[in-house]
Hints:
By secondary structure, this protein is mainly beta. It has a single domain, classed as Jelly Rolls. The chain is built from one helix and twelve strands, in the order E-E-E-E-E-E-E-E-E-E-E-E-H. The protein has a five-stranded antiparallel sheet with strand order 1-9-6-11-4, with no helix packed on it. Strands 8-7-10-5-12 form a five-stranded antiparallel sheet. A two-stranded antiparallel ribbon has the order 2-3. A hairpin with a 4-residue loop joins strand 7 and strand 8. Pfam families: FdtA (PF05523). It comes from Algoriphagus antarcticus. InterPro entries: QdtA_cupin_dom, RmlC-like_jellyroll, RmlC_Cupin_sf. This is WxcM-like protein.
Amino acid sequence: MKNTTVFDCTSLVLPKNHTEKGNITAVNNLKDIPFEIKRVYYLYDVPGGEARGGHGHRELQQLIIAASGSFDLVVEDGRNSRTFNLNRPYQGILMPSGIWRELNNFSSGSICLVLASSLYDQDDYIRDYQEFLKYKL
C-alpha cells in the first residue's frame, strides 16, 4: 500500500508457553497474526557486517522474528525511519506492504525467521530505493 508509514510497523508479542523443559511459541494463521501464512523462510549464517533486505513490497505483508540471536530491522516510508532491535524468539515486527526494509547488525549465530502473506513473486519487489520513493508519491 502506498499510504503505509513506518508507524504501521508494529511490535507483536506471540504466545509463549513456558515449562521447566523449555519454551514453545506457536503462530496460528489469522489468530496470532492478521494474515494467512503462505510462505516461511529464514536467513542464517549472515557474515559480520553484511546487511539483508534493501527492498520494499507492493502487496506482501510479513512478520519478522529473531528466532535466535539478534539483529536490527530498519524501516523507511520515504519520510520517516525507525529501527527495531529484534532479540526475542517470541516477539516480532508486523510489516505492512509499502515499507522499505533493511536488516543489519546480525549477531553471530542469529536466525531471522520470516512469515509471509504470499508466495514469492518477483513483481511484488521494489529493489531500487529511488523507484520506491516514486511508488510512495
